[in-house]
Amino acid sequence: EIQVVESGGGLVQPGRSLRLSCEVSGLRFGDYAPTWVRQAPGKGLEWVGFIRSELKGGTTEYAASVRGRFTISRDDSKATVYLQMNRLEIEDTGVYYCSVEEWWGQGTLVTVSS
Amino acid sequence: VLTQSPGTLSLSPGERATLSCRASQSVSNNYVAWYQQKYGQAPRLLIYGASSRATGIPDRFSGSGSGTDFSLTISRLQPEDFAVYYCQQYGRSGITFGQGTRLEIK
């Protein structure tokens, strides 16, 4: 069974940092390009970014709204992808989902508030 | 930019639903997917490559289209189909979602 489990969400003040983790099991994680998607309260889905497999260079792509503030990395030995979020803004509040192909986690809530 | 229409669709169980997704530029390789999201749940992939059903998706769901115009059709609505639907364009440099269509019970 394929499982995707996010963790690391919580309440953080504007301007601070937070790191989310996403652990994947049940598939050859190294072959895939995990993606982060977020959803503000009551709003639609917004793509955040993804990281390619090491075979394809392990490079990343980001949405314009987070580029330069967020960084995605991966540790294939732990089947885990990370989302490092710096200089957080109130508009970054929402549920953050990790997805690998068709498999999604249940999300982790990030609340940016003073 | 992906524009979905209508914003809200009110239908009864057993009816046919057609949801539209229009791209501002031609989508290469028809890399369009459709997702269903129910309240409090993660999105669920229904269709990828514009017309291929994902694993375990009932055949009442079908996708079509090419270029800039895509659609999702649900042939006979079941009570569990009432949810929000998103189209998605995916490619080498990024991903874009439409704003969503809410399918509600009439």
The major beta sheet of chain A can be summarized as: 7 strands, mixed
Low-confidence blocks of residues of chain A: none
Shape of chain A: globular
> How many E strands of chain B?
11
The residue-averaged pLDDT of chain B reads 96
Strand content of chain B: over 45%
What does this entry look like structurally?
The complex is a heterodimer of chains A (114) and B (106). Chain A is mainly beta. Chain A is built from no helices and 11 strands. In chain A, a hairpin with a 4-residue loop joins strand 7 and strand 8. Chain A starts with a strand and ends with a strand. The model of chain A has no long low-confidence stretch (mean pLDDT 97). With 106 residues, chain B is mostly beta strands. Helices cover 0% and strands 54% of the residues of chain B. Chain B is globular, with a radius of gyration of 13 Å. The model of chain B has no long low-confidence stretch (mean pLDDT 96). Chain A binds chain B through residues 35, 37, 44-47, 50, 61, 63, 97, 102, 104-107, and chain B through 35, 37, 41-45, 48, 54-55, 86, 88, 92-100.
